[in-house]
Structures are given as C-alpha cells and as structure tokens.
Amino acid sequence: xxxxxRRSRGKIRLYVGTAAMNGENRRRKTRTVRIGGFAHVNxxxxxxxxxxxxxxxxxxxxxxxDLEETARRIAALGDMGxxxxxxxxxxxxxxxxxxxxxxxxxxxxxxxxxxxxxxxLRCMDFPVAKIRxxxxxxxxxxxxxxxxxxxxxxxxxxxxxxxxxxxxRDVAEKVERGMSRALALxxxxxxxxxxxxxxxxxxxxxxxxxSGIADTVSANRIFAERNDAxxxxxxxxxxxxxxxxxxSGAALASxxxxxxxxxxxxxxxxxxxxxxxxxxxxxNAAAELAGVSGGPTDRLLRGGVKVISCPRxxxxxxxxxGFTSRWLARLYAxxxxxxxxxxxxxxxxxxxxxxxxxxxxxxxxxVLIFRRGRAVLAVSAGEADAAFADALEAARIEASPDRxxxxxx
Length: 409
Fold this sequence. Notes:
Layout: E1 33-36, E2 43-46, E3 53-57, H1 67-79, E4 84-88, H2 92-102, E5 109-112, H3 117-123, E6 130-132, H4 141-154, E7 158-163, H5 169-176, H6 181-199, E8 204-209, H7 213-226, E9 231-233, H8 241-257, E10 263-264, H9 272-292, E11 306-309, H10 320-332, E12 339-342, H11 349-352, E13 358-363, E14 366-371, E15 374-380, H12 384-399
Parallel strand pairs: 3-4, 3-10, 4-5, 5-6, 6-7, 7-8, 8-9, 9-10, 11-12, 12-13
Antiparallel strand pairs: 1-2, 13-14, 14-15
Helix pairs in contact: 2-3, 3-4, 5-6, 6-7, 7-8, 8-9
C-alpha cells in the first residue's frame, strides 16, 4: 500500500466572511484519488486539478426486482451531470443487491457502510468503486486492517465521513465544555486519518458535515490548510428543497470559490435529480464568485443548459411553473451550451430574454417560441411541448453539432 503524505500541524485559525471576495484562495492542492477505472466502471478523478465532481445519494432501499429500472435511472442521472452515486448498505443482503447493480452500470457506485466490516468486505467482491466507512465505528483494529487491506488490493478508495451529530463521545464532551463544533469535526477527521496513516493507506477522502453553515465552512477551511486529502463538501440534513438549497448554496459556494472542496453533494429532502441540479448551480455560482477576485474557475465551471424563468405574476398568460417542472430534468440532461428562457407573458417575454438562445412564452391558447428575442413560431397550447422539443433540438445542433443528443424523455 502507498504511504500517506505527512500532514502539516499548523496553527488552527477560524475565519469569518467570504475569503474569495477578498482575493484569497486557501486551497492547498490536494492529492488525486481515482474512483472506479476498473472493469466496465468509469474512472473519476477527485482532487488535484480535476474538476469538482458532482454526486448524489440514492433515496430508496435497493430491491432486486427494481434493478433494471434503477440502472435506467442511473443513466439518466449521469446525463444530468452526476458522476458518482452513493447507496446506503445496511446489511449483507443490500450488499449483494448493490453488487449486482454495480455489475451492470458504468457510473462509479459507493457503498455507505456502518458498524459491520463484513458488509464493506462483501461489497468489494463486486465492482463497487468506493466505500464510505469510519474506522471508529466498525470495530477493533483487526477488522479495520481487513477492510483497508482488501481496499488496497482492489484499488477501492475510502471516504471518512464525519458528521457533527455523531462525534465520538470524548469529542462530544469537549463540545459540551465549549469546544467549537468546527474544531471537533476536524479533530475527529484527523483522528480517523491517523488510522489510515498507521496502515499506510493513501486513497482516502474526507468529509466533515454539520447542519450549521458556519460550522461546515469553518471545519473545511481549517482542514484544507492542514491536510492534503481530497474533500467531499456538503451540509448535512440541509432541509426541504428551498431551505436546503439556500443553506447549501451559502456554505458551499463560499468554500468552492476559495478552492476548498473536490467533490460536492447537496443534501435535500427531495429527489436525487434536484440535488444534482442544485450542485451544478452552486458550482456555477462559485465560479462567478471566484472570477470576481481573479481566482481560478476551471475546476468549477459547468457547461450545459442555463435555465432562466420568470417568477410569474398576475399578468401571466403562460404556465411557467408547470412547463419548468415538466422540462427541468430534461433540460439539464442536454449536452449543449444553451440559455433557455421560460417567460410568463408575450408582452415582455421575448424582450426580457433576448439573450436566450431559445425561449417560450404565451397567452391563452397561443404559445410563442422565440430565438434570441425574436418570435419564430406560434402554436396552440396543446402543441407547445412538441414544438418546443423540435426547436430545442435545432438549437442544440446549432450550438453543439458534434455532441450526441441526450435528455430524451
């Protein structure tokens, strides 16, 4: 097994404010860890100069009878920009089902394992690409050694996932006595990393998540200055869609703009598809923030469709809410650099979205499709989706003629 580079033990500092806006970039270049890249599984590099990787987590218990549909949906998640997908694996039966799924899909799948090291060992008998496990909750060092030795032999990296709600008892007691949760998260993560150090295991990623924005930001900033392990960033238990997206955006856009974070998952009480959309938009927002200070944006920028839509008012004649809901996942799966506008009325729609490559608006039973502010087609409301699909495909071909069509419904 490869040795782990020594971690610096510099002075701990807490930060307040958005450092990226002040021209600061705290990123210590992390080492690169490869997820997958064996058998039929795609290789995804995390860390170093690699682009920030968007990932999500499967929301339901895996069932043998659903594997074909699950594989189809995984492919659709990949079209939307998901590069790594994590599954909860609570028992050996779940490990068997995940293993069979991993034999059929090319996206790297991650097994999230707690307490029973035998589950992690069984997952690695299949082309499962990564294990999320904490040495501290799977038993004695003999069990830890068994997991790390098999992971090294199989080329499977491991993520240490530390959450503020499940700190070791002695660290939790320090928090009760006044230690900040941010420092508690870092101390716990470094304690877990020391176990990997002891066994010389280098292919490790780290996450430190809290439900609080300040705790999440501070912990990851501190860790990034002291360590070179790639960071998986996210806010745990962020909340329902709007609340969770806002809280995650506030924390993660700031970190990513500073260069802190190598892979991101936005935790929402919502679909995996909406987690991916939120993560992509946060990466784009972070790139804009980094650009303000002249910082690097290459790791953050995401191509693809940009959707703008009006919030709707009493003047609306077109159901922007319903149309956007029907089309959003399909638009984000489109492999083309396009701006799409969904506007509520034909009075202001084309003019307000004249920079859009393609847009749609309407009034009553009349729907307008426009290109760069100019109406090109008028159809009935019943024909709107089909007409928009044709116009969107024409715009896609014009923008990216060499890319295959994706995002089919």
